[in-house]
Amino acid sequence: MGAVAESTTGGPADDPSGYTAVKSTAEAALTLNWLGSFRSGHEQVGNWVHGTWVISKSGA
Question: Do residues 20 and 4 lie in contact, with contact meaning Cβ atoms separated by under 8 Å?
């Protein structure tokens, strides 16, 4: 998690209730470009067929 503790009450430094988790500068500036989905073409599925476990290539 990219959060840091920020004093929000101005109370004693050893009082945990005086702090709130906020995004760090690095986390707030983070941007990601979505590259899309990757499918290898080797996906397989398993199903019971007439009492036998059968592995076959996925149709998706």
Answer: no
Distance CA 29, CA 45 (A): 40
Alpha-carbon distance of 7 to 13, in angstroms, equals 8
Structural domain count of the chain: 1
Assess if residue 50 is contained within a domain.
no
Please tell me the distance from the alpha carbon of residue 4 to that of residue 43, in angstroms, as a whole number.
41
What's the domain range around 26? 1-32
- Please tell me the distance from the alpha carbon of residue 54 to that of residue 30, in angstroms, as a whole number: 45
Task: Encode pLDDT of 17-53 as tens digits.
Answer: 888 888 888 777 888 777 777 777 778 888 898 988 9
User: For the whole prediction, is pTM greater than 0.70?
Assistant: no
Is residue 8 a part of any domain in this protein? yes
